[in-house]
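Troubleshooting entry. The earlier prediction with 1,3-dihydroxyacetonephosphate gave an output that would not parse, so I re-checked the input for stray whitespace and re-submitted. Clean input:
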Amino acid sequence: MSNRRPLIAGNWKMYKTCEESVEAAQKLTSLVDGVTDTDIMIAPTFTSLFSVYGVVKGSRVDLGAQNLYWEEEGAFTGEISAGMLKSAGCSSVIIGHSERRQYFGETDETVNKKIKAALSCGLKTVFCIGESEAQRDLNLTFSVLDKQVQTGLKDFVSDDLRDLVVAYEPIWAIGTGKTATSEQAQEVHTFLRASIAKQFDEPLAQSIRILYGGSVKPGNIAELMSMHDIDGALVGGASLDAETFSQIVKF
Ligand code: 13P
């Protein structure tokens, strides 16, 4: 672990009704009440955001969304803007998750537009990147990640990126129970800092938080967090149960 403040974020994906979200948020806020040394964020579905905000407001838990659209408003049926997320109580947003890239056609270019909209609205942005199993097998991991970072963060200068968090989520580790080893994750995180230093500067590369995501559980979080360049986790399945997620938060 480093001197960067840890962040443990829960991505609830398309799980939980409003009632279930509120109940889980209530349990979580009381379980993590005493935690002061780690930032905590949960990202429920859009329909649960405002109700969950009523629960987490003033607590240790920040509210995040799982996506946004880059326009402020307009005739874009089914989409939601950064300003709308803020008005629902969000302080954070996840952008570019591999499931959005895989099932909803998101590209590095649209991810870049979304990051711009999020940051310019003052939302802390969790920017997701990661390689597939086939890309890893072909030794393309670093070139894939480098392109995702370069295009995803195109046109920014380092001062713009104070509220940016990078989440490295190898696609082969998501929901598979196959966690990257802490050494594999550390190797990639080191590479990502170098890539950010090259595109921006060394101070940003050293201060930016890089989370690991992919089958994080209470049983592997401490080992992952012992690595120098792993600053937290983006947790899917294990974030759905408040008790389990709170154990990860208290690694
Ligand atoms: P799992 O923790 O279920 O593998 O999901 C990781 C993830 O996609 C978080 O965004």
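This one parsed fine. Residues 11, 97, 169, 174-175, 213-216, 234-238 surround 1,3-dihydroxyacetonephosphate (CB under 6 Å).
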